[in-house]
Amino acid sequence: MITMQNVRKTYGNFTFEISMELPEGQILGLIGKNGAGKSTAIKLILGLCRADEGSIRVFGHESKELPETLRQEIGVSLAESGFSGELTVNDVKHILKKMYYSFDENYFIKQSENLKLPMNKKIKEFSTGMKAKLRVLTAMTHHAKLLIMDEPTAGLDVEARNEILDMLRAYIAEDESRSILITSHISTDLESLCDELYLIHDGKLILHEGTDAILEQYGILKVSEEQYRTLDQSSILKVQKENYGYACFTNDKKFYQENYPQIAVENGGIDELILMMTGGYR
Questions:
Q1: What residues form DSSP beta bridges with 265?
Q2: Domain count of the fold of the chain
C-alpha cells in the first residue's frame, strides 16, 4: 500500500528521515511524542509537502503522480482539518457525494445515526468528540482501500476513543485487503489495533516492531548499581539512571527472568517503550 525509502525532509533545524512499509491488509501505527514527526510522515504520503530526498510510493505509484482513480481509494482524517462552521452533517453528505465516485449515502446516514451525529445541527456546535467521529466517518464513507488517520483520538475521553477504535476495527473486518495507517501519541489506543508499530523521535525512526512482540517480549529491568555491573547487556535497548540504580529496557524479558531471578522485571508496554526509548521514563 505505502512504501517510503530513505525519505528525508528538512524544516529549519528539524530533519525528518524514515524508511517504512505498510503492506496490504495491515494496520500500522506511527507512535511518538508530540512533535516527533508523525504528521510530517502523513503530509509527505499525501503529497501535502515534498520530500527533499527519497521515494514515496502509494499503490505502487510515486505519490506525486498518483492517478485520480487511486486517490479515490484513500480515505483521510487529519487532526487539524475537517468540516466545520455553518455546515451541517447533511451538507457534508452532499459535498462527499460530489467528491467520491463510490460515496455510500446509505452507509453515511446509518453511521451518522449510530454515532449520534444529528444531520441538521451545525458542526460548529458539535463537541470535540462528535467532530472527531465525523472526521473518521468521512474518511470511511467511500469504502477506500487505504485509510490514513492522523491522531484520530487526540483530546477525547475514553468512551469516544473506544468508539472510534471500534469503527476502525469494523472497517478492516469488512474487507481484509484494506489497510490503515494511524498516528497517535496515546499509545495504549493502538495496543489492540495495530499489527506493527514504528516509533519516531526527533524526526528519526528509532524502532520498528510487531505489536504482539512488544507486549509479550519487552520489559523493564530495575537493577542496583552492583547488579548492573554483572548484567548481560546483549538484549538491552536503552538504559536510564535512576535513584535505585538503573532502569533497563529489554526486548527479551524472558531471558532475564530465567537467568537473573534476583532482579525485578516489569512488563514493557507501548507507553513504556516510548518513554524509555525517548529518555522520558521515571
A1: 221
A2: 2
Question: Any idea what the CATH number is for the domain that residue 72 is in?
Answer: 3.40.50.300
The single-letter code of the amino acid at 251 is N
Per DSSP, which regions of the chain are E strands? 2-11, 14-22, 27-31, 53-58, 61-62, 74-77, 146-150, 179-184, 196-201, 204-210, 219-223, 236-242, 245-250, 264-267
Residue carrying the nine cell digits 467521529: 133
Q: What is the pLDDT of residue 158?
A: 85
Q: Order across the sheet with 196-201: list the strands.
A: 61-62, 53-58, 2-11, 14-22, 204-210, 196-201, 27-31, 179-184, 146-150, 74-77
How far is Cα 206 from Cα 16, in angstroms, rounded to an integer? 12
User: Is residue 282 in some structural domain?
Assistant: no
The pLDDT tens digits for 1-32 are 899 999 999 988 999 999 999 999 999 999 88
Tell me, yes or no, whether 135 and 258 share the same domain. no
Q: Rounded to an integer, what distance in angstroms lies between the CA atom of residue 75 and that of residue 138?
A: 8
Q: Is the pLDDT of residue 79 over 80?
A: no
pTM of the model: 0.89
Q: Which domain holds residue 263?
A: 218-277
pLDDT for res 32: 84
Nearest partner of 73 among 137, 12, 147, judged by Cα? 147
Q: DSSP letter string over 186-229?
A: -GGGGTTT-SEEEEEETTEEEEEEEHHHHHHH-EEEEE-HHHHH
Lowest mean pLDDT among 45-54, 79-88, 104-113, 232-241: 79-88
Instruction: Determine the residue type at 156.
Output: L
The C-alpha cell that represents 43 in the structure block: 503530509
